[in-house]
């Protein structure tokens, strides 16, 4: 190992960090002979001599060597003591993934929620292991505060870090965190483009251009245009486009700075699915589509729309001060604009009775959910975040250390203007079997002109035209990993946060007083891990971590408002115990992971699906289980990635009627498999064939276990052909069995997933 020019000493690296010799061994070599295709090979060295070497043949499907991509988590997946699922670039290409939601179908333990709150929410609203993660979506380690449906055109890969991670990310992360690593400039010049078309009037084009301007400056531009209807759902569509240019200064140097800009415009129709009803005599409710209602039935109106504009500017500094210390500074500013109007259907007792009577055509569904609303609103947000951190590697005697410390400051501001229908009762009722979207004479106006028709939130806020929220978080974090021996290390850390938030409701009905609420909280979240690493290919670990979710955390995308009654709620607290093992086998061709965990959550908060009212249930919940995965190259030309999760969840305290019940949204079993085989690679008659299945057992939709959604089973497939080194055609089939599956879930309704569909893709890369 080369000595440090400044100190004359060898740089200190963690025991598993690759040395220069190891990096050289992993480089492509000139293979002289290997008659059996396995074992050591004769390699011609630079001086002309020959020697035996093991040649690393790592598979891009083996995700254990994937860097986390966050400065506060500098290790790769293999050496990070948590359950981590990665959706690699190759998998997204083979599946022709077009959104974050589609990418996360490959990760067990993740479900999507319609999202509720004051006025209703949509966009990406995920749950990890049954716990909300809508504020836990990150891009290159920085929060993405926006409420929108994320397109995947700029994704390199997606990482899901499971379990409480407040020590790294701050408040939240009860079930885990989702981190998106974007496409940024590198030292390779290339241009790629693709066009997709198929079922549901699907048309999509993408562009990926990267170029080195000088030896140290490179640029990259990715772009997307997309129009599609949703197969299996009436009236639902998305028309969107996006662009993401980036530039790096100091490529390959000790100091480099990357600037990224992201823009996405999306005009879509929100889909709040179909209501859940309980048939007389049944033990729990099911979606009405399980009783014969058409899966295509949509209960919206011509006023329903979700139009969003997202702009984010990010700067990331990396400075290798010396071989021991690296300093990072990541900054992001975001602007989010959104007009949202949706119909939240519900089938009450009268509706249910009529549906199961001899005259089901008389059943009438409510399109406003509950008391008063929701009404349309214009949402305008801005956010800023800066994370400064340093990573230090050093020795004290025979003990190696890695210390990470930093400061995280973020501020988010949300302002909404509520609009009002001139005749809200006109849109209230619709036929359960044959709803109509057009309502004669109905119109939307400024809320101040129709103050009595504003949403009446029954928790002290009342009919108000303007709702504003803001929050500031100042956090400091520290962790140290100490290798007591080359094969055993201990990692411990903490994060302290000062959280301050406020909420204001003004304007509208004069007789309803304005509301001004605020709170401040200090939180402390520790983490301890023990790691046994017998070699660079294996690790056994134990992890204990805590996280905190204070009231008002989800400023832009969840339960608001606070009220005088609930603003003093104690924050949710969660605790994780996890034991796991990871092994990268056969020269990194295949990765295996296994973990058992217990996740405890205290002081659970609930949101009314109709009104957005937040209640402190006081419930304590527990989810425990096992997760397994295998990924990589099984045989030559045969790749596979498979996951399985078995969960045992229940409410352990609080509401007496709920104790012992299964935690809502948590399946008992969930699994995914995706595999491809390449026939005659690099031959004119080459062909790649593959497919997979995604399975999620049925889940309960409420804490009392009175409503349940059936199991999801989806079969997908792909066949592709490569024309020379630069062109490829592919055909993807989705939900080949045309099974009635359900995607977004909430307590009293669910959204049917896409029906059988096919997508053709033509792509080129130079």
UniProtKB/TrEMBL annotation:
Domain TonB-dependent receptor plug, chain residue ranges per copy: 78-177
Coiled-coil ranges per UniProt: none
SUPFAM superfamilies: Porins
Record-annotated TonB-dependent receptor-like beta-barrel domain positions: 266-736
Bilayer disposition of the protein: Multi-pass membrane protein
Domain of life of the source: Bacteria
rRNA-binding among keywords: no
Localization: Cell outer membrane
Annotated segments matching region Disordered: 1-52
InterPro entries associated with the record: Beta-barrel_TonB (IPR000531), Beta-barrel_TonB_sf (IPR036942), Plug_dom (IPR012910), Plug_dom_sf (IPR037066), TonB-dep_rcpt-like (IPR039426), TonB_sidphr_rcpt (IPR010105)
Ranges of biased composition (kind: Basic and acidic residues): 38-52
This protein's UniProt keywords: Cell outer membrane, Membrane, Receptor, TonB box, Transmembrane, Transmembrane beta strand, Transport
Main subcellular location of this protein, as a coarse class: membrane
CDD domains on file: ligand_gated_channel (cd01347)
Family: Belongs to the TonB-dependent receptor family.
PANTHER family found in the cross-reference section: BLR3904 PROTEIN, FERRICHROME IRON RECEPTOR-RELATED
Protein name per Swiss-Prot or TrEMBL: TonB-dependent receptor protein
Taxon lineage: Bacteria, Pseudomonadati, Pseudomonadota, Alphaproteobacteria, Acetobacterales
